[in-house]
Amino acid sequence: MTMTTSKTPQQIRIRITDRSIENGVAGAVQMSEVITLTDLLGKYLGRMGFESAITSGIIVQLLTDGKVRVDFSVLAERLELLDQSDCMTAPQAMALFSDYLASTRSKGNENQKGKTLRIVVQKPRH
User: Fold this and answer.
1) Using one digit for the tens of pLDDT, what is the confidence trace for 65-85?
2) Smallest Cα–Cα separation from 84: which of 5, 13, 1, 3?
3) What is the value of pTM for the model shown?
4) Is residue 35 part of a domain?
């Protein structure tokens, strides 16, 4: 049984505020924009991989708490729901994310393998 929300990802609006990171500290605001959750999902899934558990975690946190900060190597993104009434329960957020993924898969891509990730494991230095 999936718990759905009344809004679609296209109807949920997100404010993104980008700040540069220098020496581990977030600097001045570089950019601020408002996009839909659909656009954010496309951006993150393209950046982190279609089956990314990290993307799922970010989106669920955003939809349950209303805001989240995502740090990349030289950039910190603050994501915030424009309308706090768009907050939902974790099961609803996971269902919305899963439904979005299912809707973006075309029948021609169902047999394709997932994106290959490169993971480097280094031996600890003694």
Assistant:
1) 999 998 877 888 999 999 999
2) 13
3) 0.75
4) yes
